[in-house]
Amino acid sequence: MSGPETLHYQTGFGNEHETEAAQGALPQGRFNPQKAPYGLYAEQFSSTAFTAPRHLNRRTWTYRIRPSVVMGDYEPYRTEQPGLICTGPLHDSPPPPNSLRWDPFPIPEEPQDFIDGWITLAVNGDARLQVGIGVHIYCANSNMDQRFFYNADGELLIVPQQGALLALTEMGRLYVTPGEILVIPRGVKFQIELPEGTARGYICENYGAPLELPERGPVGANGFANNRDFCYPTAWYEDKDGSFLLVTKFAGVLYQATLEHSPLDVVAWVGNSAPYKYDLARFNTINTVSYDHPDPSIFTVLTSPSDRPGTANLDFVIFPPRWMVAEDTFRPPWFHRNVMSECMGLIQGVYDAKEAGFEPGGLSVHNCMSPHGPEAEVFEKASAAVLAPERYKNSLAFMFESRYMLATTPFGLGALKRQKDYVTCWKGLKKHFSLPPQGA
Ligand SMILES: O=C(O)Cc1cc(O)ccc1O
Ligand SMILES: [Fe+2]
């Protein structure tokens, strides 16, 4: 097993990293010399168009034992389990204006690896147009065995909630635990192992532009997620012949192809497109020290911009442990209606707007313009609270926020884990209105 202690990382978001698992494997001074060192093949991996502006351009040169084209043809994916992976658009499922919430899904009894353990709950946009997101959860109890996966439909933002993940990828290995996130670029081949035997968590599949760090504006040169805290793997490879499957999701359809060698055969690489992990505890939280509850955009870790300025295809926002000091302020999230569609999950603890019914591993969807906010008990309590400085401890919630309305999958709508009475958490909000007596 490769525990956290044996793995080394290179740090710096979007840096041009370079790494070799065998000394001298990385060509110097050019990317594709006539003969690459040690008989390796050079292969470029492009995550943005060749012509994307320099500050957005992402590509990596890999030096591998065999080029990726050494593989069988793709054919439809064969599985005994009916798949629960869906991709936008969902033509027969209009996005619901009702707010939705699910209890956590259980880890299955039957063997299920990371790929077969995907359940899609909501999607928007259109993967074929590279617009929108898919929201999935995963519940797994087996390592991916003799098979590898890549997603042609988007980048994967993986948010573990329970159990560590060991991601074996073309660019190297990453060990990721709850409280950390893992981002795997579109197209990178990988295998997930479960060092603790079981794992559960969330996946946001980003069909749009690769996630990037948000602007800091007047906050300045530091703060929020700092570039140096993003960890990229060092080169690692296996020179393994055998009988393997490469599974891919391409325009919403799963395919498989045979491989006679492990595709994790990159001995050296250089570039700025690679999987990375980030410990959410490193987030430098910035908030009010005077009054009012600021918009949660102050908690944005990563953003996938759309073509409309400031209006994201996907914002990944967290609600980390922090001090609350706002004076004369209703401190929990306010009641609101938002043009952006919100999908929330909970990694641990209790979320300040919802003290009951929103469990770690659960998920909620509050769609475009659908009203939501603190539940009745939270409203009463926070309206009467003594406003001393208070530390919000041991709690970590997050939000996938998108400009596009979220459609719920038929499985998600029909799931026993869906709380059919979610709306009743606001039923107890009483009328408090009264004017002072006339002439008083
Ligand atoms: O709906 C939610 O709980 C997420 C949220 C949190 C917050 O602090 C302000 C606005 C918002 O949408
Ligand atoms: Fe909200």
From TrEMBL:
Per the UniProt record, one Pfam family is HgmA_C
**Residue ranges that the Swiss-Prot or TrEMBL entry lists as coiled coil:** none
Enzyme nomenclature, EC number: 1.13.11.5
| Amino acids binding homogentisate | Y351, H372
| Broad EC category | oxidoreductase
Ranges for domain Homogentisate 1,2-dioxygenase N-terminal come to 8-280
* Gene Ontology cellular-component terms listed: cytoplasm
- CDD domains given in the database record: cupin_HGO_N
Q: Homogentisate 1,2-dioxygenase C-terminal domain spans which residues?
A: 282-433
Q: Name one GO molecular function term.
A: metal ion binding
Family, as annotated: Belongs to the homogentisate dioxygenase family.
Q: What is this protein called?
A: Homogentisate 1,2-dioxygenase
Q: What is the lineage of its organism?
A: Bacteria, Pseudomonadati, Pseudomonadota, Gammaproteobacteria, Cellvibrionales
